Amino acid sequence: MTRDWWKHLILILGALVVIAPFYMMLSYSLKSPGEIDRGEGGFFGRQEMMIDERCVALRDPNRDEVASAAKRFPGLTDREIRDALITEAEADCAMRPAVFNYTMAFTEAPLLRYLLNGVIVTVSIFVIQVLVALPAAYALAKLRFWGREAVFSLVLFCLLIPVHAIALPLYIMLAKLGLTNTYAALVVPWTISVFGIFLMRQFFMTVPDDLIDAARMDGMTEFSIVWRVMLPTAVPALLAFAIFSVVAHWNDYFWPRIVVTGSRELFTPPLGLREFKGDGDGSFFGPMMATATVIVCPLIVAFLLAQKRFIEGITLSGMK
Amino acid sequence: MADLHIDGVVKSFGETQVLKGISLDIRHGEFIALVGPSGCGKSTLLRIIAGLESQSAGDIVIAGRSVAGVRAADRNLSMVFQSYALYPHLSVADNIAVPLRMRTMGAVQRLPLVGRWMPGAAERNREIDAEVRKAASTLEIETLLDRKPGQLSGGQRQRVALGRALVRDPAAFLLDEPLSNLDAKLRVQTRGEIAELHRRLGATFIYVTHDQVEAMTMSSRIAVMMEGQILQCDAPDLVYEDPEDIRVAEFIGSPKINILPAELNGGSLRVLDRDIARLTRVADQPGIRLGLRPEALRLSGADSVLTGVVAHHENLGSEVFAQIEVPGLSERVVLRADPSARRRLGLGATVGLDFDIGDALLFDTSGKRLRPVIEAARAAHQVA
Ligand SMILES: Nc1ncnc2c1ncn2[C@@H]1O[C@H](COP(=O)(O)OP(=O)(O)OP(=O)(O)O)[C@@H](O)[C@H]1O
Ligand SMILES: [Mg+2]
Fold first, then answer.
1. Mutate to test the interface with A, among B75, B76, B79 (most CBs of A within 10 A)
2. Residues in domain ABC transmembrane type-1 (chain A) (predicted)?
3. Based on the domain organization, do A136 and A185 belong to the same domain?
4. How many C-alpha atoms does B115 have within 13 Å on its Cβ side?
5. Which of A86, A193, B186, B190 has the fewest other C-beta atoms within 10 Å?
6. What is the C-alpha radius of gyration for chain B, rounded to an integer number of angstroms?
7. Domain check: are A74 and A95 in the same one?
8. Could you say which of A59, A83, A107 is where a domain stops?
9. How far is the CA of B39 from the centre of ligand 2 (A)?
10. A277 in helix, strand or coil?
11. Does pLDDT of B382 surpass 70?
12. The predicted structure's pLDDT at residue B323
């Protein structure tokens, strides 16, 4: 134990490096703009009341409002009434920085809509990937047909093609089909996952042939074998694949940025971060980091809920 | 009535011919044991009958209908696999129910969740449930119905695999070494149960094993297979007492049959340079072989055909096996004796061995059985 202290030290240092950005994100999402600028206030910030300038600006009283408020402030001049109204507005617009940041995140941009889009896109991608990958992997692993090895080499070859290299042709194809700015553009290019086919094929290779023969003797067609025998036995491998697929597409910024150009209706969560860019003065770092926090939350919650099975899945895919 | 004919089946994997023309007629209700050494093609033959593998030539005829090109699922056979091959994600009850569900329920009725609300599904499910319970009680696994295969012992899994094969009423049962993973005690017990089951169901069984005791005790006929050919297919006692081929004689019987080199000269049979008998209706040939079961030998006096030194003995209580080193023979001769003879079989003792020529099995150079007429038993045989 004590002899291994240096191993622990290295691991702790590594963990710190990985955690640091998350720490900053969480911390910024809680602090006021001033604290972010000056780099003070520790993790939580002082959480002093701060005044939302834009909220106050929106409630800047005009002449009619001053006139109608005159009854409430008898004996004061217009100017004094106006000052009193502004003070009132400031009191109403004051809030804690954390509340401010997160309210901004949800009100300034339709973040819930983005989250919903994210769920629709990642779930459709994963489901279709599985629908394609399982039968393909089964055929590659267990059926004997002419050209099987050649097809499998193609799968291996496709693993080597980086997405960014084919992004442009893909985009042009989608544009020609008139599919840009649709859910289809976000989903269709990812529905055939060679990685999924490869992973499931490797897993199916370990399923004993006798099990499949037994299913045939029991009267199953090849198609029912895939869904009734292979799918249930492959759940751990599928979970491992789900991690890779869902994480990759939930967090993807590159592809949605390319094919979703117009309407914010189709923005996925990472695109939501763009809402707060461009304000060079940095006063929107708080809301931006709040958005980022909201975006990573679903994945972290999902991981915590399914932690045990996830780790099983990953170690299993490493072993087989 | 589902007779099963195997007609000149040949199977090659690439260059190597694994089955070299297998023909076998199996009548309904027979229990055929398919025995042979490892790698002789037993499983391959069974898989071809089942339709899981296609033959290179030849035909399989089930109930008068050639099944060439018929899928395994449609041949109406059930099979028990050497490795059990239970569905790991299903409970024991569901495992046994699968063949019934797949064959008697429509695709819609089998759908998960919604299937059970389809018309007729509830009733079918009840029937299947009853049949599963019946099969489970036959095999005494009712208490295990809710478990997963992973939570069962090897013997229990094997019963479940049998149950899954037995719920249906197929044309024939194919069993591929179903007992090979069991311990000795369980194997004996299950052996009895399967034989009992066969008697009760009256169904056709093809039972692959390389354990000859299983073959001898359970089957109505034994098919001895070697190097891709069936050498002999006969009732167990016939295969033992009257083998057609020296390889059959050597494979069946434990301890192994004793093989002595012999010579046939002018009708006189010579073993170790002694005349033993006069034979007729058989051509002279050198290099023939004489097979003697251990129980065909008996202890005798000094002037015997075989004289040797006891090199090893095994006392099994009810009988004694002695290995005797005989000068001039490359292998030891095994003798089965009564326990009363134990004193004479001490290690290093010199003993004489004698036999009746009527008990000996003669094989020609190529290993085929010779059936000569014995005219005079043994010129040199005076001491009984
Ligand atoms: N798919 C295959 N490809 C090539 N050769 C095969 C294949 N399947 C079986 N063989 C060969 O065919 C021969 C017979 O195999 P088989 O499995 O039928 O033997 P077996 O009699 O069942 O043996 P065991 O008692 O060990 O189970 C073996 O030599 C084996 O190597
Ligand atoms: Mg075998």
1. B79
2. 115-306
3. yes
4. 13
5. A86
6. 26
7. yes
8. A107
9. 7
10. coil
11. no
12. 93
Q: Give the Cα separation of A281 and B357 in Å (integer).
A: 114
- Both tokens of A269, joined, read 């969560």
User: Mind listing the pLDDT tens digit for each residue in A269-283?
Assistant: 888 887 776 655 545
Cis check for the bond before A97: say yes or no (omega within 30 of 0): no
The count of domains in chain A is: 2
> Domains along chain B?
4-247 (3.40.50.300), 255-375 (2.40.50.140)
Q: pLDDT (tens digit, 9 = 90+) per residue, B214-257?
A: 899 899 999 999 999 999 999 999 999 999 999 999 999 888 99
Token representation of residue B261? 């080199």
Give the pLDDT of residue B27. 94
Does residue A9 belong to any structural domain of this protein?
no
Tell me what the pLDDT averaged over chain A comes to: 85
CA distances A107 to A55, A99, A119, A287, B353, Å, are 12, 12, 20, 10, 106
Residues A99 and A227 in one domain: no
| Residue of B51, B90, B102 lying closest to A220 (CB–CB) | B102
Do A87 and A190 fall into the same domain? no
Domain boundary among the residues A92, A107, A122 is at A107
Residue type, B285: Q
Residue A279, pLDDT score: 55
How is the beta sheet containing B172-176 ordered, strand by strand? B77-80, B172-176, B204-209, B31-35, B221-226, B229-234
> Judging by DSSP bridges, how do beta strands B77-80 and B172-176 pair with one another?
parallel
Ligand 1 in reach of B55 Cβ (< 6 A): no
Higher confidence at residue B1 or residue B179? B179
Dig out the tokens for A134 from the structure.
Answer: 């399982």
A221 & A269 share domain: yes
CATH number for position A156: 1.10.3720.10
Residue A223 included in any domain: yes
| pTM of the predicted structure, to 2 decimals | 0.81
Over range B78-97, report the average pLDDT. Answer: 91
pLDDT at residue number B91: 92
Residues A155 and A95 in one domain: no
A58 and A181 fall within a common domain: no
The pLDDT value given to residue B259: 93
Task: Work out the minimum CA distance from B79 to partner chain A, whole angstroms.
Answer: 7
Domain with A134 in it: 111-316
Question: Does any domain span residue A93?
Answer: yes
Task: Let me know whether A136 and A124 are in one domain.
Answer: yes
pLDDT digits (tens, 9 = 90+) for B260-316: 998 888 788 888 888 888 887 777 777 889 999 999 998 887 677 888 999 998 888
| B179-213 pLDDT per residue, tens | 887 778 878 888 888 888 898 888 899 999 888 88
Q: What count of Cα atoms within 13 Å lies in the side-chain half-sphere of residue A231?
A: 14
Q: Which residue of B has its CA nearest to A232?
A: B89
3-state helix, strand, coil in chain B (%, to 5): 30, 35, 35
Residue A308 above 70 pLDDT?
A: yes
CA-to-CA separations, B199 to A74, A165, B194, B205, B305, in angstroms, rounded? 112, 70, 9, 10, 46
Residue A145 lies in a domain: yes
Tell me the chain B residues in contact with residue A233 when contact means C-beta distances shorter than 8 Å: 87-89
Determine the average pLDDT of the residues in A61-77.
76
Please check whether residue A86 touches B, CB under 8 A.
no
